[in-house]
């Protein structure tokens, strides 16, 4: 085997004939686009490793050999083994960090030291299995994914797997590993400085640790409110929460937080060498030093393992102490309330690999922000923790008992089991506890992937099932999704509200606080509009409005534009120089709630019947509503498998039951439409379907019944009408339907084929059997188009109350709603053009919006024409406004 020496002779590399080893080139960000963000992330990672006492011995490029004959295909695609021998001093050890196209994986020596020491210098050997090219056949990919998901197969070693394909860089790292008797991990974590961190301003550069004797100078002559930030494993206050001040569109969040609380503090702590209860004890001591506790109320935002620290503080220690402070609101973000499977000692290698890659991905995003983010501070804090565990895995006997901070998070282990049992004096169900959760999966597309900040190689590896093989269930790459809300006994009741982000390709474990949706939710849950020491319930409306204006520091200039700043920092502009009308004067609803449903994939339908733009419709509508005054906690988003009939009807019923006069309920639905035969006796007098068919909307589980589609798997227009009619008088019910609502929308096959060739698909399901289809055609042939309109109007009729729903529908009864693309992105034609019109004319009337959508459909050459149904006064009023 060819061999070469590096690092002044301290590293010797032997390669198979298909590979060669050379000193690393200056360009370390191979094949990563423009490389700007990734290069900065890699630089920050190496700098942080240096600060954590890792010495870079050398960086070595391992690359497949190329034939000197340009026309030759080169060496055969055979696997081989690269061996690295690294010389270390008696009290040193070494580890290799592999990097391939922006993906990192730690490799341990063949025989880790394991706590033994020698008086002589040693040579550590590392072996890396390599292959010039990755097999590209679909069968090979399927085999890799099946292996990743199989509980019987051994799991691949690290994110790059047991077999590394293509070019890879080996970063050889050396570190001191003295003989330590007892407290090994605590020794390795000694660089972590526990204590409170004063969040003095929005910029992380202003956040300072409180040294011994430093105080927050909290008042003692009036009620005091404190916000506490508690980070998770490997992290720090800056590493976990600095992104909150960098989210585009939410620049006002941290200023509002700082104005609403007497003080905002983080709690930096060791996460490996001590368990969460000991962390909580240290936290209690720190807080007691700052305030006697009388009239002190604490709100908490906590992430990951920090949830266990927070709950230990609130449930186990605070009730038993004589410190009279109280904890009110807690926001658990991706908390390990039920543990995480990565806490198992057998998964620690995967844990450090995942965190190393997630911190570099986060650093890449920070580096790309305007002006740059605190890359070094964020990466440094996390790498210190990762480095401590890597050193432990290499140099000492890996035993879960020696790492109590991780052992506490083992699902079903003693710590989480005890914590979720009854604690003397703990808060009971009904506390102001909130949960944010996500089920993350990458999306692999033709020529691209999501999320875009992930290196392609990382997206591919995750797409092959690397993480799914670890968890066997929903997760955000680090924590099981079900664990995030597993608070207390199974009877539940401890979670007051939640932001369940569902299955998505955007929100993973380390980027929650970079999400506008999460910031919006926290702004709604925390008393940011009341000022310190005042409860949201006790503050009068006028006081809340005045305080909100003060905390957001909005400024109005007597120029050509007036501005109003919201809690999250968004600015709404008007071209008028006069005072903007108040919420009441504009007719805007008191409390606005929304349910946005989008279904692309259906459980029992073939993929040829699936749609493309419905989920985007629902997400786009939800995002627009939040930008226009809806609180995140009041916007429910149901997509694909989450959008069952039961889930949809329960959510819609709950919203209507909660509503009071002056409130708004908005329901948007993007899916297939269809029809089912009307059942005799199901209509109230005067409401019989004139065509003998019930309009219906497909849910995720739509299935064939005895006489057509199973009525229990679709939502009927009768069911919606009855539900809308139950809304109290004075409640605004606004409905957006981007689906076909009538079987007469079935057109000639030639027309449908023409649309398919243009990337457009009708959102309509015909009856599923020949008998049902013939019946529908016979019934429809006996009714003129005037009757079709009556079927549509039935959705906005209300009996017995004065509630008058307003309906925007994607098309007329004799047309189909189009599932189309705009700029290469799938959307419903109606939804895309409706939101475009709303953005361009936010103060227009509903009629104005309807006309703009109609003109847009004509301009884009769509045959469908949207409809607007409701009271005349409603049509002359702005969208979302009462009349």
Plain-language structure description:
This is Caspase domain-containing protein. This protein is an alpha/beta fold and 883 residues long. It has three domains: 3-176, no CATH class; 185-340 and 409-525, Rossmann fold (3-Layer(aba) Sandwich), CATH 3.40.50; 584-875, Rossmann fold. It has an eight-stranded mixed sheet with strand order 12-11-14-13-15-16-17-20, sandwiched between helices. α18 (614-627) links the parallel β23 (592-598) and β24 (635-639). α1 crosses α8 (348-368), α5 (253-260) packs across α16 (541-552) and α6 crosses α7 (306-317). The chain is globular and about 90 Å long.
Q: Please provide the count of β strands.
A: 34
Average of the residue pLDDT scores: 80
Main sheet record: 8 strands, mixed
- Please estimate the helix content: 25-40%
**How many angstroms does the end-to-end distance come to?**
83 Å
Which geometry do the CA atoms define? globular
Give the domain tally.
3
CATH domain class name of the largest domain = Alpha Beta
Helical run tally: 26
Percentage of β-strand residues? 15-25%
Q: Roughly how many Å is the radius of gyration?
A: 30 Å
Please name the defining characteristics of this protein.
883 residues, alpha/beta, Rossmann fold, eight-stranded mixed beta sheet, six-stranded mixed beta sheet, globular
